[in-house]
Amino acid sequence: MAEEKIQLSRSRMRKKILSVVFLLILNSILLIPYSVSAGTLNKPSNLLVLNTGLVGWWTMDGKNTINNISDSSGQGNTGYLFGQISTTTSLGKIGQAVNFDGVDDYVSVSSGSMLVTSDDWTASTWIRSTGNAGNYRVAFANGDAVGGGGGRAGFQMGITSSQKFFVATIVGADSEEETLSLSSASLDTWYHLVVRKSGTDSSVYVNGVLDKSATLSSATMDNTGNDLNTLIGVASGNSDPWNGSIDDVRIYNRVLTSTEIRQLYNMGAASKSNISPTASSTPTTSGLTGYWKMDNQNLISNVADSSGQGNTGYLVLGAGGTTATTTVTGRPGQALSFDGNDDEVRISGPALTGAHSVSMWIYPTADPSGCASNACALFALRNTAGFVWVDSNQIGYFGNFVTDAISGSLSLNTWYHIVATVDSGGNSTLYINNAIVDTGTNFPAYTPDVIGGDDVNNQTFTGSIDEVRVYNRVLSAAEIRGLYAYGAFGHSSNLSQKPLTNGLVGYWTFDGKDTDWSTRTFNDVSGNNNLGTTTTLTQSSAVLGKIGQAMNFDGADDYVDAGTISSLAGVNKATISSWAYRSSASNIISLGESPTTNARYRFGYQWYSDDNIYCVAENGTLAYNHVAGHAETGWHHILVAYDGTLSNNDRCQIYFDGVLQTMTSDGHTLATSLASGGDQYPFEIGRQYADPEAYSTGRIDDVRVYNRALSSTEIRQLYNMGATTKVNASPVVTSGIGLNRGLVGYWTFDGKNMIQNVADSSGQGNTGYLLDQISTTTVVGKIGQAVLFDDATYVTADDSTSLDITGTITMVAWIKPTSSHQGQVITKYNLQSVNMPWDIQVWDDNLIYTAVKTNNGFVEVPSSGAITYGQWLHVVTVYDGTNIILYLNGVEDNSLPQTGTIETNDFDLEIGGASGNGTDFIGSLDDVRIYNRALSATEILQLYNLGR
């Protein structure tokens, strides 16, 4: 009967809601830095109008350059970096800028579409050119506005080969019309450049002042070209690359006034970076004998030493430890997170026998009480000397743990730059954040052997470490100030790269979005329509890959036939790239062009059970060579580089994990060109004819075929795409900070959190227990792994005080429903309960419903429209004490008023179902969170962007 009452009240409420839906329109307000005084950014009150018509705004600042270039306009036009690494940020005109090398660095904002298609528009940016003075340099391109032969569109702006500022605009019917400035640009100088189109007027503003106006032949933009891309730092087709720095890029779909343009200029012209003018933006390398950046590209299977001295660090990560992908945002770039349990990096030097300096950034998240003698090793010789996190949250630089320099107490969850210098007489000086805090004497020689922990002596640090540097001399105060400035304002991290597409003639990701199990086909995302087909692989063959999803081949009869790749016919250069996983050295991995008979027209590779990887390049006769000594298991990147123009043994080469291998000749003459016509055979993944056929046993992912030779840089880039990809890894939680503040439940469903149960990563101990499931019911999620639910499975977490929320609440989940079936996503409710305090669920009317019950009654909010089954949807419910607000994919969808204190009960929390009432969710759920506070719209968008 209680169940009937609730169901009836829900039905009545829905009818009322559908007749009185309120649309809440909020004007987003962007606070724009204007001037800096004494290190504080002031926010102007008279510049809010500058947000009107803003469709893209890329500040290039550290906080917006974590995995890409965030769009601060609120329009979600994220920029993706090509060619850059995490250290390519520098001091800008307003905060940070991004550096471009004039070769292959650029930012792709949109591919195949332009952000602005209106006839009137304005674009603004700060630019500083440092090279390529004899060429055109494009700072921003909205379309392809240069070149001949038609098909041009949009506009682009930058500096010409004669050092004039320019805007090239395509109007009418493919008419390219260029407006050049009167003034000229100098190298190594910041300029504020604004280009504006108003009707037939084309204007160029330099440093806030109108420099040149021209009359266009038409007021109508031509937006129907071939390369409708929006790019920063390059023109379409990767032409006219920028060499220098770019900062604060904006584009508007309206005409800015001269006053507004002057205001934009003043924001940068009056801005003073809060870094000492004497500080170098590039830290000194003189005397550098050890340098561990902790950035992703330096964390492949160890921690690379970027000093050039070869002091490689080795990750030691125990059963309770993490993996090499536990990188977090650092100072600058990425940092390595240590769990305080058994994580450490082992090094072997350099020996510090005289004058030296050690510099590093640390972020402690726990006091030293968990370490033996209240001393956690940061950079040290075990139990002897070096940097330690000690006693009452202090930093010490200890020698023989007798003579030392030590700081006062520091705060947790805060970044600190620590430097110790020791002169030739053994006199030590300790700096914290560019200030001297203590000195010592008689410091001994030592050779450091650990970073981040000493698990032998139970002295492992809990927190993050970044930018560890060692010098064989005493750094000056100015140099230390420069190191501090470099990290204090350089926060970018893991700038991502997009796939290489030039010459790509076949590309099979095996990801869910590129797989159609109804026809058992795998899409060729190169655009060449080399569709992969299978008759043996099934949906259960899909497993977690190195980049997204992979296929698991059984070694008996599994393979994918991609047909004949016509673009390989008769070529003398080609490349095959793939990720392969073997669980045993006896397993075989095979792929390439493969006849089903003993015909000698093969091209590909076989990683065989004899520990050899064979590179095959035939055109009528038996022809292969090999690299020996590869008994590895696990994931590895294998790339075949074929060049028929080279000498015989160099024609077919193997790169293993990005490194060129030494090939061994097998006495064959390799083909000078690949087969063509009737001699060409299908490209097969998972099988290659080897008398008899050799089927693969293991996983294969991200297979690419090129009809050209790749450079060593491109090969390394392909390897780094997978080596640094955080598959199966959700964000690390630091309690009380940012999106972790108020977090009382966080179930990632990732592999490391799915051993026998579902770990709660919030730190509140609300462990979830799998009912009618086992840990293998995980699937590829939006952030790492997800859990697949049917109509009889769910996860339950015991009732706890942290889940008895009475004030404000936020519920978060990624959902992928696959059936039109009423199913609970999150709830504290079961068959016997009439006191259901809050929930989110999918109903069989194809709507999302969310409810909060307070002492003032029960209110339920429906989504404004039907959901799409089989697609991921980010769902957030916020109760802020005044309203219940439903957000879908980061945007407010619907809301209703609600007030009062949330009611509580003693029922368990349930995810994916409600025990006893038949409302179990069907589909996948990922990254479920509960907060005991109301998240802001900005925070909700951040959560959504984590999984985009």
TrEMBL record:
The keyword Disulfide bond applies. The keyword Transport does not apply. Signal peptide: none annotated. Residues 354-478, 572-713, 807-938 form the LamG-like jellyroll fold domain. Keywords: Disulfide bond, Signal. SUPFAM superfamilies: Concanavalin A-like lectins/glucanases. This is LamG-like jellyroll fold domain-containing protein. The lineage of its organism: Bacteria, Candidatus Tayloriibacteriota.
